[in-house]
Each structure stands twice: as structure tokens, then as C-alpha cells.
Amino acid sequence: MTNRALTIVVLTVTVVAASTWPVTAAQQAAAPAPIGSPAQTDTGTKPITAGQVQMLFEAFIVTQAQDALQLSEAQYGRFVTTFKRLQKARNAQQQQRTRLLGDLRRMTAPDAPPADEAQITDRLRALRELEETSAADIKKAYDAVDETLDLRQRARFRVFEERMEQQKLQFVMRARENARALARRGRDGR
Which of 19, 21, 101, 182 has the fewest CB atoms in 10 Å of its CB? Predict the structure, then answer.
């Protein structure tokens, strides 16, 4: 088995088992909250976090891309560099958007004290600006990826991305089911 194939197998198993894979306290402290699972498992270690699953899945995508897009060795290095820039742009946009929406949610919650209209207006303006600038940044990153691909590979890339997004959703659903099963076992004392 080649190193590349071994990496694919390891990443696949890791992502599938994501909700039950223990991490150290230091890793947990540096990462976002876990995906719908109890704070600690029976062994006292904490489950893998959503951020860690995302990082693993992005690495998995990169390893799958060479075969799916039929990239040459020469193309692969350039593709990985530009694709990582695309992932970084999308992740940054999503994180900022989530933060701004969280601010708006807190400011406008029914049980929250009346929010300052200037603050709400500021957050709405920031959200609109983010949508405009991130759309341009993501388009620029896509253009860079497309420059590394021929026409058929560009088409395959769009289909590949959709397939990977569907697979990610399946992994997340499976991880949540595993977390619920662990929580039930913990409550039942098994």
C-alpha cells in the first residue's frame, strides 16, 4: 500500500470515528466545542471537536482530489496550494459570518435587554460587507484553482466538491449519532 493510499485510509477511518476518538485536554482547550457529545468519555478524554473534524476532512479532500480530477503530478502541487487558499477563504468567511450572526442573535433575542439600534445597524452593515468582500475573495480563489486545471478537470472539480460536501454531511450526522449513542450508554451505565 502506498503512503498516499495509507493516508486516505487513515483519514477516512479517523473522520468516520470522529465522535469517539479521544483527544488530550490541551487539544480540546485549543479547539471549539465538541459535536453534540458528552463533555468526557468514560476514559476521561474528550471527544474530537467539530474544528478538528473539519481539518481532517479538508486533508481527506486533498488526498481524494488527485484521483477524482485525474491530476498529473505537476498539477497536483499547484492545485493543493490554490485549493488550500480556497478552503482558507471559505473557512474565514464562515467563521466571521457565524460570529456576526451570533452577535445579532444575542442582541435580538426575545429575553435579551433592548439592544442599541446603532450596534444592530453596525452588525448588519458588517455582515453585508463580509458577504460582498468574501464573495470576491472566494471568486479569486476559485479562479486560481481553475488556472491549475483544464476544462474537464474544472467540471470534475465542481462535481467533486458537491460530492465531498454531501459526504461531509453524512460524516457529521454519523458523528452526532455516535455521540448520542455514547451519551445514552453513559446514562444507562454501560
Answer: 101
Q: Which residues contact 6 (CB under 8 A, 6 or more apart)?
A: none
Return all residues near 127 (Cβ < 8 A) that are at least 6 apart: 97, 100, 101, 104
Tracing cell 467540471 back to the chain, one arrives at 155
Domain coordinates in residue numbering, the chain: 1-71+151-190, 73-148
Residues linked to residue 65 through DSSP beta bridges, in sequence order = none
Residues in the chain: 190
Q: How many other C-beta atoms are found inside a 10 Å radius of the C-beta of residue 104? A: 17
Alpha-carbon Rg for the chain in angstroms:
20
- 48 and 18 in contact (C-beta within 8 Å)? yes
